[in-house]
Amino acid sequence: MTTQTLYQLAAEQKSAEVTDWSARISWVIGLVVLVVFVYWLMRQGWKWRGNLQSDLPPLATTPEGYADGEKLLGLTGRYHASTTAGQWLDRIVAHGLGTRSRVELTLTAEGLDVVRPGAADFFVPAADLRGARTDKALAGKVLPEGGLLVITWALGDQLIDSGFRSDHSAEHPAWVEAVNHLTSTTEGIAR
């Protein structure tokens, strides 16, 4: 090709069309409104679920002098969620039990103290503990086999599974053994 031909080709090409900014802005605003609407619907569903579970009694608080008791085990990690016992997808959101957070667990002969920075703390008396196991899924969260410590406890008439993941998952079997031992000795005393 000669230089003359290249100049002719360059002269014949058109510049790109100017973007229609009003159409783009309309699409962006529409998308933002849709996202806000979906978020609002999710929030309403969360509130509705909390209202359905409002018949649950309030959570127990840590009793006075609890820190003076002999600490059986301690754990730091993550609190994943609480569900209706045996139903791993039926999340409980009442009383803040649906909020994921960091957690510090302390087990004594009096019960289980659950301290959650940024969320509601609660206490499970030893008489309300029903058992513990390792599992791989709870409230839609799926982890490797044995990656979740699930503690079953009673809140009023409702049995609840609460899921915890230790920073060191090798601690889970010791927790299962200790909680199950505590529940068996508590049941023996109650009889």
TrEMBL record:
<dbReference type="InterPro" id="IPR057446">
    <property type="entry name" value="PH_bac"/>
</dbReference>
<keyword id="KW-0812">Transmembrane</keyword>
<keyword id="KW-0472">Membrane</keyword>
<protein>
    <recommendedName>
        <fullName>PH domain-containing protein</fullName>
    </recommendedName>
</protein>
<feature type="transmembrane region" description="Helical">
    <location>
        <begin position="25"/>
        <end position="42"/>
    </location>
</feature>
<feature type="domain" description="PH">
    <location>
        <begin position="57"/>
        <end position="179"/>
    </location>
</feature>
<keyword id="KW-1133">Transmembrane helix</keyword>
<dbReference type="Pfam" id="PF25362">
    <property type="entry name" value="bPH_11"/>
</dbReference>
